[in-house]
Amino acid sequence: MAWNTNVLVGQSGGPTAAINASLAGVFDTARDLGAHVLGMRYGIEGFLGGRILHLDRTLGDPMDVELLRRTPSSFLGSCRFKLPTPEQDPAFFEDAFAKFEAARVGAVLYIGGNDSMDTIDKLSQWGTDHDSDIRFIGIPKTIDNDLVGTDHTPGYGSAAKFIATTMREIMRDSSVYDLKSVTFVEIMGRDAGWLTGSACLAGTQGNPCPDLVLLPEVTLNQDMLLNRLSLLLERKNTVVVAVSEGVRHRDGTLLCEAAAEAADGTRLDAFGHVASLSGTGRYLASVTRAALGCKTRAIELSTLQRCASHVASATDLAEAYALGGAGVLAARDGQTAMMSAIKRIFDKPYLYDTTLAPIRDVANKERKVPREFISADGMNVTAAFERYARPLIDGEVSSTYQGGVPHHITPLDGDRA
Amino acid sequence: MAWNTNVLVGQSGGPTAAINASLAGVFDTARDLGAHVLGMRYGIEGFLGGRILHLDRTLGDPMDVELLRRTPSSFLGSCRFKLPTPEQDPAFFEDAFAKFEAARVGAVLYIGGNDSMDTIDKLSQWGTDHDSDIRFIGIPKTIDNDLVGTDHTPGYGSAAKFIATTMREIMRDSSVYDLKSVTFVEIMGRDAGWLTGSACLAGTQGNPCPDLVLLPEVTLNQDMLLNRLSLLLERKNTVVVAVSEGVRHRDGTLLCEAAAEAADGTRLDAFGHVASLSGTGRYLASVTRAALGCKTRAIELSTLQRCASHVASATDLAEAYALGGAGVLAARDGQTAMMSAIKRIFDKPYLYDTTLAPIRDVANKERKVPREFISADGMNVTAAFERYARPLIDGEVSSTYQGGVPHHITPLDGDRA
Asked: Among A248, B175, B205, B324, which is most buried by a count of CB atoms within 10 Å?
C-alpha cells in the first residue's frame, strides 16, 4: 500500500561530496514508497522561514537524480542553526510543528553531523512529548567522521580518497629536487584526526606513506618533532608530514593561533566551535626552516577536501545513498528519534549492514581517533587505522563530463528559489 | 636501419602531470628506432655530476611505461640550474661535451620550460660552433603555458582541467548558505594568466563561471574591484573570484607582498624569479571583508595544480607523449637547436600538427595572455580565451587504482639512485 504522506528532507552543516547521494537515497526511496518529497531550502532555518521545495518537480527527470548523486555540496542549501531547548523556547517548537502539520509532513529526514543530530533529537523529543505522529530520522553526514553510533559517516570516504590521492601526488611532487626539504600538508579536522589519518592511505606497495601524521588527539611536542625531522633528513631527501589544522601546543593553544594571521582564523560559529582554522602548516614550515635550515613548504588542502566529487569513493556514495533510503524505510515503519547508521561486518572483503542508532546517543557527542589507531610515539597512525579506513575509499565513480569538466545537476538559484 | 646511438633525456624545472608522458614518448620512440636511452638524474646538473640512469633497464617492463604516462611529477628528478654562457665559462662546455662523448650520446632531449630551453640553446650553440654531431632538442613543458613558438605547452591542459574541475566544485561549495560571501581562489602563474584564465572553463551550460578572473597581465585597481564586488553582491549571494598569485598593485608591488607573511614568500630562485608566491587570495579576502562586511574566504589551489594527474586531460597527455616522440624523430633526422611544438589547425573539432620551433626564438621568452583574450574591463577573460583553452582539457585518463588510490610507477629512490 502506498505511503500517502509528505516526506520533508533537509541538509545541514558543511557540505560534502556525498551529502547529495543521501538526498538522492531519501528521494528515490520515498517516491518508490508512494510518498511526496518536500525539501527544506537552507535547512531547518529556511524551512521555518517558509522556503519549501517540491522535489517531485525539481528532480522530475531520472537523469536529475543520477547527476545529483555525483554533484558535490548541499543541493538544497544548508544552515548552521542551533535549536533552542523546549524549556528555553516552547513557542519555537509550537511554530515548527504547526508548519510541519500545515505541509502535511509525516516524516522529517535531516542529513547532517553532530549539530544536525541535535536538531533531530530536540524535534523528536518534542514530538514524542506532545503525541505527534511525525517521525524524525537523522542521516549521518560529515567528512570529519566524528559521529558516534555508526562505524563511519558518509562523506568521510570521499574526503579520505581525495586526501590519499593528492597526498600521493604531493609526495611525488616534493621529491624531484636533489635537496633536503620538509613539506607540511594541512588537513581539516577540528578535534578529531580521522581525515588527517587518512593521509596514510597514500601508502601502498611501492608507494610511500607520509613520514609523520600529526593528529589533534595528540598534543604537539615541538622539540620532539624537530628532532624527528632532523633524524629523517639524515637518511632521506624528502620528508612529508600530514598535519591536522587542530593540532595544539602543550599549553592548549592551537598552532594556527601562534601563526601571524591567527586573528583571521579563530572566529566562533553558532555552536561555539572555531569556525575556520588555517595556518598550522605555515607555522610548522616556518619553525622548521628556522630550526633546521632546510627548504620547507606548507600546502593546505582546504575546501577541496569536502567537495572533490571528481575523485569520490564509490563505496562512500553507495553508502550515503543506502543510508538515505534506510532512513526513509525506518520512518515508514514507525521509527523516530533514530539515526540511520552503518554496522561493519568485515574489513576485507568489506561488508556492512545498515542499522539504527538512538539519536539521543549521537547528538552533540564526538568520536575521536582511539588510542590503538595512534602509534606509540604519537606521530603516526597504526596498521589498524589503515585496515579500518582503506575499504572506505574503495572504488571510483564514473562522472559524466561536459566540456572536459564533471557535469553536475544545475544548482538551485540562491536568490529566487 | 637501426639508429645506433644513445639518446640522453632529462627533465628540468617544476614538475607537471604531463612531463612523464613526454619522457615516455622519448623513450618509446628512441627504443623503437633502435637507440638506447640514458636518463639524467636531477637534470643537467645531476648528469654533469655523473648521475646517469640506464632507462632501457629501469623501464624494462612495458607496464612501467604505461604507468609512467599516468604518474605525475618528474620521474627522473629535476633541477633549476642556469648554464653559464660560453663566454663566461668555456670550460663548463668542454666538460659537458666530454661527458656527452664519454656516454656516446648522439642526441640530448631536454623536457622543460623557458629556462630549460635556455639550456638547449646554449648547448646546441656550443655544439654547432665546435662541429659536434650531437643534436639538441627541447621538449616543451610547463603548466604556465608561457612558452612562445608553440600553440600551448604540455602540462597546461591537465593543470587547467584540475583548475576548472575544482573551481566548479568550490563554486558549489560556496553557495550552500543563505548569506553573502566572496570566495577568492588563488591560482598559480607568476607573470602569465593562462592558468588563472582557465578557471572560466568551470562554466558550461547550467554551470556558472567565476564572477571575476584577475590576471597578472592587468594591474589591480582595488577600488574598482571592491565596487564591482559590491554590485555583484546586490544581486546574488555568492561571488567567486579567480585570482592569479602574480596580481600587482598599480605601484608594481605584488598583492601577496602586501600580505603579512610576505617575508616568507618572496625569495628569488636561481633565475632571478620570485620562487614562491602566496597570500594574494588571503590579502583580497581580508581587504574585502573589511570594506564590504561580508563573509570572505581564500582558497589556494597550490601545488595540486601541477601534480593532480588523477584528473589529467587525455588530450594533454597524448600531446605530451607525441611531442616527446616528435623530438626524437627530429634528432634522428639531423635537426638540432629546435623545440618540438604544437601547431593548432582547428578549435572544434580540435586538430593539431607537431612542428619544430627554432630554440633561439623560444629560450628566455615569455608569452602572456593577449589583449583579445581579456575582457574590456580587465576583470575577466573573453569567449575567445575559452575557445582557445576548452579543447585542451578534453578527455579523461583511466587511472589504474590500487587500494583506492591511483597507482604510479615506483619512484626512483632519492638517496640511492
From this structure: B324
Q: Which of B144, B146, B211, B316 is catalytic?
A: B144
Q: Count other C-beta atoms under 10 Å from residue A220's C-beta.
A: 20
A-chain residues within 8 Å CB-CB of B301? 304
Q: In sequence order, what DSSP letters do the residues of B40-104 get, joined into one string? A: ETTHHHHHHTT-EEEHHHHT-SHHHHHHHHH--S-TT-B---PPPPTTT-HHHHHHHHHHHHHTT
**Chain B residue whose CA is closest to A390:** B403
C-alpha cell at B141: 613543458
Residue with cell 594556527: A256
Sign of CA dihedral A122, A123, A129, A130: positive
Active site (annotated) includes residue B144: yes
Q: For residues B390 and B164, what is the distance between their CA atoms, to the nearest angstrom? A: 10
- The reply to whether ipTM tops 0.90 is yes
pLDDT over 90 at A146, yes or no? yes
Beta-carbon separation of A303 and B306 below 8 A: no
> Is B176–A410 a contact, with Cβ atoms under 8 angstroms apart?
no
Chain A contact probe: residue of B12, B71, B177 with most A CBs at under 10 A: B177
Separation in Å, CA of A222 to nearest CA in chain B = 21
CA angle, corner B307, sides to B301 and B311, nearest 5?
Answer: 85
**Is the peptide bond prior to A90 cis by the omega test (within 30 degrees of 0)?**
no
**Whether B261 and A264 lie within 8 Å, measured CB to CB:** no
Name the β-bridge partners of A6.
A36, A105
How many beta carbons lie within 10 A of that of residue B318, not counting itself?
18
A–B: how many Cβ contacts below 8 A? 209
Distance between the two ends of chain A, CA-based, in angstroms?
33
Closest CA to B39 of B65, B57, B14, B64: B57
Task: Test A410 with B45 for CB contact under 8 angstroms.
Answer: no
Helices then strands (H, E): number in chain A?
A: 15, 13
What gap in Å lies between CA B227 and CA B214, rounded to an integer? 15
Taken as a whole, chain B contains a residue count of: 417
Residues A13-36 have pLDDT tens digits of: 999 999 999 999 999 999 999 999
Determine the straight-line distance between the first and last CA of chain B, rounded to whole angstroms: 33
Q: How far apart are CA B145 and CA B158, in angstroms?
A: 11
CA distance A62 to A42: 24
Q: Which of A79, A172, A211 should we substitute to test contact with B (largest number of B Cβ atoms within 10 Å)?
A: A172
Which residues in chain B are contacts of A176 at CB distance < 8 A? 11, 15, 73-74, 77-78
Q: Which residue of A has its CA nearest to B417?
A: A178
- In chain B, whose CA is at the least distance from the CA of A312? B404
